[in-house]
Design a protein that fits this description.
By secondary structure, this protein is of the alpha+beta class. The protein contains two helices and four strands, in the order βαββαβ.
Length: 74
């Protein structure tokens, strides 16, 4: 199971290195292609576990002024 994140940056928001640092601290890995980051679950996650991860990510993104899209595939 994997959770993918696609980031959308703009010139007034945080620089990509700052976002990369936050995402790595949360356990995401960089990804090339359609998505910028991937979280690889060790086991199949519940909906609540995915929401918990996304909520934590959302909190850490506050103030960085970055938009993102999330996709989870089991």
């Amino acid at each position: 199971m994997r959770t993918y994140v696609r980031m959308i940056f703009h010139s007034e928001g945080a620089d990509p290195q700052s976002v990369l640092r936050v995402m790595r601290e949360l356990g995401f890995e960089e990804s090339m292609g359609m998505h910028d980051f991937v979280y690889k679950w060790k086991e199949k996650a519940t909906f609540d576990e995915v929401i918990k991860l996304i909520t934590e990510m959302h909190g850490r993104m506050k103030g960085l002024d970055v938009n993102y899209e999330i996709t989870t595939i089991s």
